[in-house]
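Hi F.,

I've been meaning to write this up properly since the lab meeting, where we talked about keeping a consistent format for the predictions we share between groups. The idea is simple: the sequence comes first, exactly as it goes in, then the structure tokens exactly as they come out, then a line or two of notes. No screenshots and no reformatting. I'm using this chain as the first example so we have something concrete to point to.
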Amino acid sequence: MTFELFIFYLLATIASLSGLMMITVKDPVKAALWLVLAFISTAGVWITAQAEFLGLVLILVYVGAVMVLFLFVVMMLDINLAILKEGFTKYLPIGGMVIISISAMMYLVLGPDNFGLDVTGEPVLHPADYSNTKAIGLELYTVHAYAFILAAVLLLLGIVAAITLALRRRSTGEVRYQNIDKQVKTQASERFKMVKMKSVVEEPIKLKEKPEEEDEK
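Output, unedited:
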């Protein structure tokens, strides 16, 4: 076993165990931290496969931005774990069937008959001046341009849908809302009111004199 193969199996094992711990731990903050470890180990696997750009993007975007935001949201929300656990045994058979179906589809796609060195062949070794970023950019913006734009539109729809579902409109008795149209149309005369007042000169404060102490007899 070569050193590169050892590193690959080590990172793959860490990624698999981290993913398993992420879905089994009870604390959502710990689950997010396990997911961060899974992302980092997966990025290491991509780097060993000469996909340096994808590995660095996975660390910078997902670990550095998305997971940090998710972790802050989880820490700020008051999540009632007891309510989330309700109905676990009720939906356990359905969940088991989904797990078995997904595992079967993954085996059909990633099995030795369709995905292996005998089918795909040995990976191509690129020279030292090979640019992984340039190769991905050429494929992404030429061959897969329409798919890239469609993915961007789907992400935008997901953001709009999440905001719409999470938006809660409270009554005016609980909170105060801004009337943007009224604020824009407001004139300067409506914002300020000039008041004339006479100048008042305050009298100096007179300090009370202390009574003279009586002479001692």
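Notes:
The chain has a mean pLDDT of 81.
Residues 59 and 166 are 28 Å apart (CA to CA).

If this format works for you, I'll send the rest the same way.

G.
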